[in-house]
């Protein structure tokens, strides 16, 4: 099922679920609410997540008895005008979700949010091909059984290490993001290992 949500009655529970998961719609900053302390980074994660990542999310959601999720285009959303952005309710295990979303009006290029209808987990996809995800411990443990989350983090860090070295890409946003996702100890260990200095910008 892919259902575009447009009316006030349809969008009210969507906004409630979004606000339970996300502080801000920023996949480069500190997007998650404090109570969602189990977090991870996904890479590479094309907008809307890859098919493998989406299947892993669907499997993890089933562990907490969820089958559907909300999907929202959130690029430029800063906390007002939520009803002006496109939102859908989707069945996570639906075949070819991305194609169906495009047929229902999803641009396929904007940053997006995929999140629990009950506000128990959520993911933000960025235009830099990474996503961040957080959720209840049971959900995140199940996700970790489906995906090698450490390998996805390593691939992300290796990519930005190369981009910074070869193209002088800005990496100043990475330390804050890693602290938010993994805590200061692991974040600083990762940054030191990959030579991404905390003072870079």
Description:
The radius of gyration is 16 Å and the shape is globular. The chain starts with a strand and ends in a 7-residue tail after the last helix. It has 2 domains: 2-147, no CATH class; 148-201, no CATH class. The protein has 201 residues and is of the alpha+beta class. It contains 7 helices and 7 strands. A 7-stranded antiparallel beta sheet has the order 1-4-3-5-6-7-2, with helices on both faces. It has helices at 8-21, 51-63, 97-103, 137-146, 149-167, 173-182, 184-194; strands spanning 2-5, 38-42, 68-73, 87-91, 112-116, 121-125, 131-135.
Quick recap of the structure?
The chain is 42% helix and 17% strand. It has 201 residues and is α+β, with helices and mostly antiparallel strands. Strand 6 and strand 7 form a beta hairpin.
């Amino acid at each position: 099922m892919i259902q575009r949500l447009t009316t006030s009655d349809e969008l009210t529970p969507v906004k409630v679920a979004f606000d339970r998961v996300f502080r801000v719609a920023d996949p480069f900053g500190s997007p998650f609410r404090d109570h969602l302390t189990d977090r991870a980074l996904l890479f590479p994660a094309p907008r809307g997540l890859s098919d493998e990542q989406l299947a892993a999310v669907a499997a993890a959601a089933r562990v907490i008895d969820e089958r559907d999720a909300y999907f929202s285009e959130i690029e430029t959303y800063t906390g007002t005008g939520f009803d002006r952005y496109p939102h859908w309710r989707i069945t996570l295990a639906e075949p070819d979700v991305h194609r169906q979303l495009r047929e229902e009006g999803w641009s396929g290029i904007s940053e997006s949010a995929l999140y629990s209808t009950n506000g128990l987990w959520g993911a933000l996809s960025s235009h830099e091909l990474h996503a961040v995800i957080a959720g209840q411990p049971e959900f995140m443990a199940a996700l970790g059984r489906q995906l090698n989350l450490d390998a996805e983090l390593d691939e992300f860090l290796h990519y930005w290490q190369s981009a910074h070295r070869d193209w002088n890409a800005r990496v100043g946003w990475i330390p804050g993001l890693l602290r938010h996702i993994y805590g200061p100890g692991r974040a600083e260990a990762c940054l030191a290992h990959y030579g991404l200095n905390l003072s870079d910008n």
